[in-house]
Amino acid sequence: MKKRVCLHFIVLLLAVASVWPMKAEAAGVHYVALGDSLAAGQTPNKEIGAGYADLIALSLQQSGNLASFSKKWAFPGYTTEQVLEQLDKKEVQQDVRQANVITISAGANDLLPLIQNDSVRGILSYEPIPAAFALNRVRKNYSQLLSEIKQLNPQAEIYAMGYYFPYPHVKEQHKPSVEEQLGILNQIIQQEAERAGANFVPVSPRFGNDAKSLVPNAKDVHPNTAGYLQMANSFFDVYAPGSPEIPEQVLNALPAPIPFSELTASQEEEEKEEEVKAEPEEVAIADQPIKGCKRGEEFLVRR
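^ GDSL-type esterase/lipase family protein, sequence as received from the core. Prediction below:
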């Protein structure tokens, strides 16, 4: 599904751009968003839509400053380790080298799976020791992640996105302990960002712990478009202090999000088409006699 999601990201951005005209010819900022479902733009209803990265890109585009934008390396569910592993891919390295603005959302998927959310009773629970190990892992991976990005592109401006409190619907007495853990997560991200010479983007002040209007689904931790707008404006608070905020009216022009089920169906159809296209070539190659092949040459023929 991930491969097809990437294609839809591009379509989604173009669709939004078509209803938000540019003020000038785009030039300057090559923006790459790395990370998890927040970077990808996952909605509270298992869809992929316009997230904070799209809104940042569109704001830059509207001001005539955007040269390129990609969030094709952001995937729902990715942990810090998986985001780090992305940097082993040549395609990712190439995009990172070409970028001059990079945002990262990573860390929540290391911690949140350890938190049990009983949305019916409004109860949160977690085991402190596994949570502490997860947070230590975030610190180690985040440090390495920033170090490798810096090695690939020392000149890029890196913005490490913080996290908001994603359980506004639970009972008040169950919020403080989990808030504390998320606060530690944000503190770790901020410390590692500052240590690496990157920028930390605090998001939680715009959400608080009762943002039901921004995180509307009690069973899901993802924000709606209004929540993503708050994240995008949090970015600009750091990137361009004092600049006008992205207006709420922009949300009315966003295209409809794409359900996971539709993305999965599209991916399956694409894979079938690729298999059909590959069959004649595979048969032709298989029918060719291979004489005197040295070890490994057959693999070169078949690629």
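The mean pLDDT is 85.
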